[in-house]
Design brief:
alpha/beta; Gyrase A, domain 2; Rossmann fold; four-stranded antiparallel sheet
Length: about 575
């Protein structure tokens, strides 16, 4: 693994053992980047409490046991007990050389690959996708890419809403359209759904027919199922078109709608009842879990069968979870669902544990996220108060990006400008979402997300394009030699340290499921590269310095491109 922290931790542990014995070596040192050195180690405080010694004395003893070697250039006492560490330039260069020689930039394949389910996007059939679907889709796709890059088997699950009462009114409306001589309105999912909804709410006879159609659907009536499948096909086609535009890796084969589990719902409820986990309550069948109570301390039920005998989300989610563990062999289940569903998923997870469907070895994780807000800090809506169409949002992003690219690079031909605008517009939308701590709300601001400075996709893309431009001008676009670069100037050292943080960042992202860690890392790489570009001439430098700096440019371009790819963003070679 290409990670200086591994070598540093080993040396600090060896120093602690040499100074204070084996018990001290068990203390894992916290190591952070420092403004005063390459890294700062924080171990003396915790070790001082354990050994009942002054932290500064402990840090001083550790510094004495950390002489200069092939990794550490200097170790110095700092403050009340911190240790400032500076790495050898040759060691940094060698680490970068190994990173350049590796197609995976130093990230090893997972030693014990797992089967991971990532449940994300999950739109509803016969409804247009809107901005409310953006976060689940983008965050989930990023996490799937990161885990796949680590070497895990990732199974994407698009748990679409394709069953239940609304389909009665939709199918009846389809039949009315057919009787009137056509089904053209089905192509416009928004208007189709709105008309069906209005008829259901305002026409008692139509509503009665719709309810009867639900019964036929659940009973497997052939004509009803044919019409239902048509709704599914048109909707999946709509979703897939948007996924393609967004650069999202979900495919029609990843669709695992509610209907898939319909036949298993009665048996699951019966199993819960036989296990003593579900009991009748006010005509419904419910699971009551410890520690889940309402405002007045009354127990909150997880309803697995409704009063009318129907089944809701809880039953479907439990059945899907059981299927994913037992049939698909999932060892880690990740649900990318908005924060308001936290209690629901916690209750589903707890029930699955009690039922034995998810043993302790299986990780169940809710990747919660906040909302997308408009400039007024309220839910992002159109001026008329409706949800913003995802298709319209994508088109506007590309149009705005094209204007920005034409202004910044007027000499490029129109086709090249259009291609760059496609990457910039969509990349800006995705990066603005992913660069925020996912649990927090964020304000959707075109001006900020399309800016070519600051922590934005265009800024990172421009840094990547600048690297590629230098390599093209040098006639060394691949810099195929794997010899390490020489790290001498302060700006080279700063860039090297950021590049070497790539592996740690990917691993931490996969563990914490927080994509903003990758965004922050890429921003720090791009910022360090800007400093390198300003202070370290490349093309005008004499040899062997010129080739060494070209190698740094080449590695920087690879890290930026790979990091953006993990976010689902394409990095153009020119801008």
């Amino acid at each position: 693994m290409i990670d200086p922290l591994v070598s540093l931790r080993q040396r600090i542990e060896d120093a602690a053992r040499a100074a204070f014995g084996d018990e001290a070596a068990a203390q894992d040192p916290a190591i952070h980047r420092s403004a005063h050195a390459d890294y700062q180690a924080d171990i003396a405080m915790a070790l001082g409490r354990r050994l009942k010694k002054n932290p500064r004395e402990i840090a001083c003893a550790l510094v004495d046991k950390l002489p200069a070697d092939d990794v550490i250039a200097t170790a110095a006492l700092s403050g009340p007990g911190f240790i400032n560490l500076t790495l050898q330039a040759d060691y940094l260069g060698a680490q970068l050389g190994q990173m350049r020689a590796d197609a995976r930039l130093g990230l090893p394949e997972a030693a014990a690959p797992q089967t991971v389910i990532v449940d994300y996007s999950s739109p509803n059939v016969a409804k247009e996708m809107h901005v409310g679907h953006l976060r689940s889709t983008i965050i989930g796709d990023c996490l799937a890419r990161v885990l796949e890059f680590q070497g895990h088997k990732v199974i994407r699950q698009n748990h679409i809403g394709d069953w239940g009462t609304p389909f009665g009114m939709l199918i009846e409306h389809m039949l009315d359209e057919r009787a009137a001589g056509g089904e053209a309105s089905l192509r416009e999912l928004v208007s189709f759904y709105k008309i069906a909804r209005a008829k259901f709410d305002g026409d008692a006879a139509f509503a009665e027919r719709a309810r009867g159609r639900v019964v036929l659907l659940q009973a497997g009536d052939a004509e009803t199922l044919t019409l239902w499948r048509r709704l599914i096909d048109v909707s999946v086609q709509h979703f897939t078109g948007l996924y393609d535009k967004l650069g999202v890796s979900l495919r029609p084969t990843d669709v695992a709608g509610e209907s898939r589990y319909n036949d298993a719902l009665p048996g699951l409820v019966a199993e819960l009842e036989q296990a003593g986990l579900a009991r009748p309550s006010e005509g419904a069948m419910c699971v009551f879990l410890p520690n889940f109570t309402g405002r007045e301390n009354e127990p909150v039920p997880l309803i697995v069968r409704k009063q009318d005998g129907g089944y809701g989300y809880a039953t479907t989610d439990l059945t899907a979870l059981r299927h994913r563990v037992q049939a698909l062999g999932a060892q880690r289940l990740i649900y990318v669902v908005g924060a308001p569903q936290s209690q629901h998923l916690a209750m589903v997870f707890a029930t699955a544990r009690l039922a034995g469907w998810a043993p302790p070895s299986v990780r169940l994780e809710h990747v919660a996220f906040g909302s997308v807000l408009g400039p007024d800090k309220k839910m992002f809506k159109t001026r008329s108060g409706e949800s913003v169409s995802l298709a319209a949002l994508i088109d506007e992003g590309v149009d705005r990006a094209l204007h920005a690219v034409q202004t910044k690079a007027p000499d490029l031909d129109p086709a090249t400008q259009a291609g760059i605008a496609q990457s910039v517009g969509i990349g800006a939308i995705k990066y603005a979402d992913l660069s925020n701590d996912r649990i927090k709300d964020y304000v959707f601001d075109w001006n900020r997300m399309l800016a070519f400075e600051g922590n934005t996709a265009p800024y990172l893309m421009y840094a990547h394009a600048r690297c590629r431009s230098i390599l093209r001008k040098a006639g060394a676009d691949d810099v195929s030699t794997t010899e390490p670069p020489c790290i001498e100037a302060p700006a080279e050292r700063a860039l090297a340290l950021e590049l070497l943080n790539f592996v740690t960042t990917v691993d931490k992202t996969a563990e914490s499921l927080q994509p903003h860690r990758i965004c922050q890392h890429l921003y720090e790489v791009a910022t360090a590269y800007a400093g390198f570009f300003e202070h370290c001439p490349v093309l005008k430098a004499d040899e062997p310095l010129r080739t060494s700096r070209l190698r740094l440019c080449h590695l920087t371009a690879r890290v930026l491109a790979q990091g953006l790819a993990l976010l689902g963003i394409t990095a153009p070679d020119q801008m």
